[in-house]
Amino acid sequence: MDRSLREYHRPVLLREVLEVLDLRPHLVVVDATFGFGGHGFEIAKKVDPGIVIGFEKDPETYRIVSESLPPITNVRLLNMGYERLDEGLLKVGILSVDRVLFDLGMSSFSIEGTGRGFSFRKNEPLDLRFNPNEGEPAYEFLNRASVREIEEVLRKYGEERKSGLIAREIVNSRPIKTTGDLAVIVDKFYPPKWRNKAKARVWQALRIYVNDELENLRRGLALALKHLKVGGILAVISFHSLEDRAVKTLKNFPFVEPITKKPIVPTEEEISENPRSRSAKLRAYMKVAEVDVSTLLLDRRFANPFPVRWKETRRRIRREVRKLRKRRR
Ligand SMILES: C[S@@+](CC[C@H](N)C(=O)[O-])C[C@H]1O[C@@H](n2cnc3c(N)ncnc32)[C@H](O)[C@@H]1O
Questions:
Q1: Is the CB of residue 33 below 6 angstroms from any atom belonging to ligand 1?
Q2: What is the distance between the alpha carbons of residues 250 and 254, in angstroms, rounded to a whole number?
Q3: Annotation: CATH topology of 131-210
Q4: Which residues of the chain does CATH 1.10.150.170 include?
């Protein structure tokens, strides 16, 4: 890795990732979240003359990294989300790969340097999109959605207990334009010592929503499993419980075998050197059989962090049927 790129982001669990991926020359590796190449460039050294295909959604990060690439390199970088893995691989003319790495979440550069409102500690436009040319910024959503819609996003993706109160206050305080506007609202509902955690939950929820992160992850994982060779390895670093729960569902599917029985977490030493690593969890799986992606994407258990509660669903259906019968009588 170019030393100056390290100033933008410090890779998490680097030694552990390199170990779990069991790298050797000639392998073809997808780094689905290339960022500043903290993992990708180290992988590229180990697989040379094999190659690394890096996906990076943020155009700014993509520009900085591609400008620093040497003229001859075994890294192919694509400014594309991993949910378009199919298209990206087709573009570089590769159909099957040996390893895939997902390092979810944000780089330090996204948080500090893009000016898109990823940090509630800075006053910036509340955008929160990884790619500012795609989708709707968070302020637009907050200024158009109903209390119910906002409440649902905060509850589902942030597991925020005061989602109803915060959603109502957002609607009453419109227009919301900046991180500062939203921070003032969240702060109203918590004493000082809980405020940062509450804002972290609200920011997480809105970021997941505007980037459609869980659906993209589901698609990205399915496509990664499609293109992995049998015997190939998939490794995922997640940073919050919804991501980890989505990844963990893989253990229910017979086409993969877990390599990590329990998630690998950073050492005390890494956490003290890089506090942002504290919530990281690394899980790895080996593909042991072919996968049919269309069937997989129809399976609601696959990479779904919200477990389908069959008992509740059955009870609800029975209730509805009873109501219908009563009405008919
Ligand atoms: C935690 S960083 C990766 C850091 C990288 N492993 C390193 O060490 O430099 C996650 C990166 O994924 C990017 N990203 C977010 N969503 C993405 C998506 N759907 N597809 C591809 N990249 C995405 C972010 O812009 C960010 O640069």
A1: yes
A2: 9
A3: DNA polymerase; domain 1 (1.10.150)
A4: 131-210
Cα(116) to ligand 1 centroid in Å equals: 15
Residue 216: predicted pLDDT? 98
For the chain, where do the domains classified as CATH 3.40.50.150 start and end?
Answer: 3-108+213-298
Atom of ligand 1 nearest to the CA of 40: 6
- The mean pLDDT of the chain is 95
Is 218 near ligand 1, meaning CB less than 6 Å away?
Answer: no
* CATH level 2 (architecture), domain 3-108+213-298: 3-Layer(aba) Sandwich (3.40)
Write down the pTM of the prediction: 0.93
CA angle 179, 5, 223 (to 5 degrees): 75
What's the alpha-carbon Rg for the chain, to the nearest Å? 21
58 ligand 1 Cβ < 6 A: yes
Q: Does residue 60 have its Cβ closer than 6 Å to ligand 1?
A: no
Cα–Cα distances (Å) from 122 to 118, 149, 261, in that order, read 9, 26, 39
pLDDT in tens, 285-304: 999 999 999 999 999 999 99
pLDDT tens-digit series, residues 223-280? 999 999 999 999 999 999 999 999 999 999 999 999 999 999 999 999 999 999 999 9
Please give the pLDDT value at position 3. 55
The answer, yes or no, to whether any atom of ligand 1 lies below 6 A from the CB of 88, is no
